[in-house]
Amino acid sequence: MPRKTTTPPPQQQQPEHGEVPEVVEMEGGEEEDSQAAAEVEDQEERWARLLPELMSEVVRRVEASGGERWPARKDVVSCACVCRRWRDAAVAVVRPPAESGKITFPSSLKQPGPRELPMQCFIKRNKKNSTFYLYLGLTSATVDKGKFLMAARRFRRGPHTEYIISLDADDLSQGSNAYMGKLRSDFWGTNFKIYDSKPPYDGAKASSSRSSRRFGSRRISPQVSAGNYEIGQVSYKYNLLKSRGPRRMYCALECPSTQETWENCLKTKFRKPTGNTVLRNKAPRWHEHLQCWCLNFHGRVTVASVKNFQLVAATDPDDPTSSKDEETVLLQFGKVDDNIFTMDYRQPLSAFQAFAISLSSFGTKLACE
């Protein structure tokens, strides 16, 4: 009878001196990661279990203790980032820009500015990559270090030009989560449309044109709209006779309502459609001694340029040449250096709308000059 033989199991290779088995290392690393994640989750639960009154008091003290201006204001944002309950407490304490005159959250960029004093910002232009950076002024100086708000890059789409606006200066694409909206011009660069990435009010329909779509497909996810929402137009009047003078422009915008509560706006619920706001450029005056057209920018603009403008509200929407209040400038934009421009806006405009209108002033407009 043949003998039954058994093959001994292969011996595991022993690690050399000073080495640690890979299996043991992986198990130990996973255990440490799970413990760290459990500790973080436990800390978050402890903060979330605080009484709402105590949360609100903490946020109030953080805002009162040097949180009026950036960069100290980032502590208020940090409180809102703890969890949903802390976010609700921060929203209840922090007031919108129309009331406080301060920009706190990213949603503040699409809220109306203050009524009395304008929000002072400036734009830096990079000609090499056709990128524009919007900063919030931190001091009373014309230009300072600033707090970065948004960026835009100019793209050529066939006969049209588009400015993609984003919260992230390194990710300027319509598929980005930081995408805010865009500005699109016609062939002549005299008519522009402003698009928002989110619906301006409940029930708003995205633009059906192919050029206004964000993605090639109809839907990426239920939370991300595949289209853009048109919220305004900017037009420059033709100057066929080549008469001397600055550019003439007017804007028709769908401005956010100042009657909505701050909480509802952040939750993007219960928003109602608002009427159009029509703006036109303030007429400059001819200075005989200087032999040029002049506007009073109150020291915020120091370099003469055809790009400089001031916008005021028009009385009759059907007649953009009419003026409701010639003295109250809702948006002013002007040059202070070769690649630096100031941008001051106030209610009913938001920072996003003011930035889009200002971007339309860049570039040569042969039919208007």
Give a structural overview.
With 369 residues, the protein is α+β, with helices and mostly antiparallel strands. 20% of the residues lie in helices and 24% in strands. The protein is built from seven helices and 14 strands. The strands form two sheets. The chain has a twelve-stranded antiparallel β-barrel. The chain has a two-stranded antiparallel ribbon with strand order 10-11. Mean pLDDT is 77; it is low at 20-26.
Question: What is the count of DSSP helices, taking H or I runs of 4+ residues?
Answer: 7
With strands numbered from the N-terminus, the spatial order across the biggest sheet is: 1-2-3-4-5-6-7-8-9-12-13-14
Shape: globular
Return the CATH architecture of the largest domain: Alpha-Beta Barrel
Taken as a percent bin, the fraction of beta residues is 15-25%
Brief summary:
The protein is built from seven helices and 14 strands. It is α+β, with helices and mostly antiparallel strands.
Keywords summarizing the entry:
369 residues, alpha+beta, Tubby Protein, Chain A, 12-stranded antiparallel beta barrel, two-stranded antiparallel ribbon, 20% helix, globular, Tubby_C_CS
Secondary structure elements and pairings:
Elements: H1 22-48, H2 52-64, H3 74-80, H4 84-93, H5 97-100, E1 119-126, E2 131-136, E3 147-157, E4 160-166, E5 179-185, E6 191-196, E7 229-236, E8 249-254, H6 262-266, E9 276-281, E10 285-287, E11 292-294, E12 309-313, E13 331-337, E14 340-345, H7 351-359
Antiparallel strand pairs: 1-2, 1-14, 2-3, 3-4, 4-5, 5-6, 6-7, 7-8, 8-9, 9-12, 10-11, 12-13, 13-14
Helix pairs in contact: 2-4, 3-4
